[in-house]
Design a protein that fits this description.
CATH class of the largest domain: Alpha Beta
Oligomer: single chain
CATH superfamily of the largest domain: Cytochrome b5-like heme/steroid binding domain
CATH architecture of the largest domain: Roll
Distance between the termini: 15 Å
Pfam family, one: FA_desaturase
Radius of gyration: 22 Å
Number of domains: 2
Low-confidence stretches: 214-230
Number of helices: 9
Largest sheet: 4 strands, antiparallel
Pathway: Lipid metabolism; polyunsaturated fatty acid biosynthesis
Number of strands: 6
GO molecular function, one term: oxidoreductase activity, acting on paired donors, with oxidation of a pair of donors resulting in the reduction of molecular oxygen to two molecules of water
Protein name: FADS1 desaturase
Keywords: Fatty acid biosynthesis, Fatty acid metabolism, Lipid biosynthesis, Lipid metabolism, Membrane, Transmembrane, Transmembrane helix
Mean pLDDT: 82
Shape: elongated
CATH topology of the largest domain: Flavocytochrome B2, Chain A, domain 1
Strand order of the largest sheet: 1-2-3-6
Length: 230
């Protein structure tokens, strides 16, 4: 069970069919997933149609719609900030900008091979080609990152198709693997055993006075989450 906008949903079966993977949903089992739901779904009206069949009730009036380890005032401030940013149009993509990004990384990638092909494999051409190739690969990584977030095109399908071209074809990595890990990272950032980035680089992400905390949650039963069922 999980909560979105104070409504309780049973996603036990649906989680296996979830396009973003079952782990993203399981990370919010028994918790309020409102903010994650808003962040992950651009077309919320479409997604809510699928939620109707999963609705089993809503929170009781005295039940808080946020986790006990979070500050209500802080959550409200961030939600208000997000609404302001959306109303200002700051999340609308600039297609010409992304076109130039895609064009320049293609040029750099082609230049890296042409330099070696034309000038040979001596030291200077090799270093120049390596520099072009390295910059192109880094830029491809960030570009496919935006595509993976569905931040370039309005329709997720176009984002997915171009992401496959960039990361699968040009970089040689599977987009499904990256999306599976990165969705979990944004679902539970900096939480041990939830954020895959921490599992891969525990020392790098755990430096500082305040360490990341482990959030342990399981699938809640009917007695664990107060609800008023319809």
């Amino acid at each position: 069970w999980l909560v979105i906008d104070r409504k309780v949903y049973d996603a036990s079966r649906f989680s296996k069919q979830h396009p973003g993977g079952s782990r993203v949903i399981s990370h919010y089992a028994g918790q309020d997933a409102t903010d994650a739901f808003v962040a992950f779904h651009n077309d919320k009206s479409l997604v809510k149609k699928y939620l109707r069949s999963l609705l089993i009730g809503e929170l009781a009036p005295d039940q808080p719609s946020f986790e006990s380890n979070k500050k209500k005032s802080l959550l409200e401030d961030f939600r208000e900030l997000r609404c302001t940013v959306e109303k200002m149009g700051l999340l609308r993509p600039n297609y010409f900008f992304f076109f130039l990004v895609f064009l320049h990384l293609l040029v750099l990638d082609a230049a890296s091979w042409l330099v070696i092909w034309y000038f040979g494999v001596s030291l200077v051409p090799f270093l120049a080609g390596m520099a072009f190739f390295t910059v192109a690969q880094i830029q491809m990584g960030w570009f496919q990152h935006d595509l993976g977030h569905c931040s370039v095109f309005r329709k997720p399908r176009w984002n997915r198709l171009l992401q496959i071209v960039v990361i699968n074809v040009l970089k040689g990595l599977p987009a499904s693997w990256w999306n599976h890990l990165h969705n979990q990272h944004h679902a539970k950032p900096n939480c041990f055993r939830k954020d895959p980035d921490l599992n891969m680089h525990p020392l790098l992400f755990s430096l500082g006075k305040s360490l990341s905390v482990e959030v342990s949650t399981g699938m809640f039963g009917k007695g664990d989450l107060t609800a008023e069922t319809y």
